[in-house]
Amino acid sequence: MSTWAPAWQVATVDRPLIGKNHDAWQVAAAEACVVDGATPLGDDWPQDLKAFAQAIAGALTTPKTDADSEVWSGAITALRDRFEPAGYRRSAGAALVRMRGDQLVFSTIGDVMCLVQTVDATVRVFDDRLVALDRQSSDVGTRAALIENRARLNQPGGYPIFADDPAAGAEITSLSVTADSVRAFALLSDGAWHHLDDNPVAALDALCATPLPGAFQRQVERSGLPLSDDATIVLFTRSPTDD
pTM here? Predict the structure, then answer.
């Protein structure tokens, strides 16, 4: 069975906001993911949103031979009854990487991102539909925008997300590349990537230039933006002996 060690070194950033921590991350033997739980829509929402994110991380990184869309659909099905009491609709974005033979397969849903550097290019694996809706709704205020956009999850003209509809698994954004061609990659919650350069090459180079979490802190300072959301990163770089 393939494993990350010894070819890869892993570093993480896990910076929750005070009084808020709805992100989760997990690195398994041949899988890794970052999960960004959606902000509650009221004080009466359940207090288990961190547990929801952790459960997603565990479900996505459980070893499976299924196709990637089936991995996502199966995880949604497995968790929807456990975490969906009447009156609440939890949701989360997530990014997943899996080893499959000689391939690394990256997939995302919601506004969580993968940055992938190969010998040829650095690319972003990302579905921008939720970000586009957020921008369109920015003039109505943060809470109103949340309510407006949450009504569009897994709806035509809206955006796919990890919630209670297994059909969302067919809507993931994915990329499969030969593992030997990959030099580095990162999985990032939106609270992290908002502080990085818009150019994926510059963004990933900055994270790899110096050790985490210091490299991320420098990007926060460069952006001039305060931390306004939980920031989570899982960064993989090639071990020096593997180059």
Answer: 0.94
